């Protein structure tokens, strides 16, 4: 509880300082909320500028763009919005406790829940480029990917609005199905690309750099899904076996905080795989630009 007394006019109106650990029962086990708030601040401090940098790089590098960059740009935009919600959410959790902002918070988390849709689009794009190059050459037009992105955004907004209005439990099954289906698609893409690469490397000393790049991308996406998104899905079926304190004060807060970390992990992984000289011209001694073709 708060260590200070409220002004009489506020207490008379029934207002009280919200608990930083959300539920009174969590007073005996509040430490997961410290991790939660730390992740929020971390995402705002590092995730927001990282996602902004990714969007800036993609927007200015049209001649060097990968077909997957359309989906990566949308993913970064989604994470940027989620990171920007941090000051609003923390102010509401720690001070305001306003019902309208709680609905906005649920909307933001609905948007975040559906991040795997864009991750899956990126993975399938890499898979088509490696496993079915002839078909891929006929669908390289980015207008197709823009259309797919628009459809994905409609699905994201529908999910987020339903979660905001009807509550978390209204979309639990949809969320679980989304994560599991994304995971299985990632595994399929991963195994397929490994199989193609094995055949292409047979009898050769070096691997095709384009296919190697695609393989690394799919492995990164699979890692993101496994680390950030599978824990909440794996725990959902056993929710009824936990006590209120275990579920609402420890487990759910921790696993969803891990899921939130993807807002920073995604752009950092994208930045780390880029050629530094191409990513930031300030790293060059001259204005000369190294041309790298990543058009798959």
From TrEMBL:
Domain (G-protein coupled receptors family 1 profile): residue spans on this chain: 50-270
GO CC annotation terms, alphabetical: plasma membrane
Membrane topology annotation: Multi-pass membrane protein
InterPro entries hit by this protein: GPCR_Rhodpsn (IPR000276), GPCR_Rhodpsn_7TM (IPR017452)
Compartments, record wording: Membrane
Residue spans crossing the bilayer: 33-58, 144-162, 174-197, 218-239, 251-271
Swiss-Prot/TrEMBL keywords: G-protein coupled receptor, Glycoprotein, Membrane, Receptor, Transducer, Transmembrane, Transmembrane helix
Pfam families assigned: 7tm_1 (PF00001)
GO BP terms in the entry: phospholipase C-activating G protein-coupled receptor signaling pathway; positive regulation of Rho protein signal transduction
Major location (coarse): membrane
Molecular function terms from GO: G protein-coupled receptor activity
SUPFAM superfamilies per UniProt: Family A G protein-coupled receptor-like
Protein name according to UniProt: G-protein coupled receptors family 1 profile domain-containing protein
Lineage of source species: Eukaryota, Metazoa, Chordata, Craniata, Vertebrata
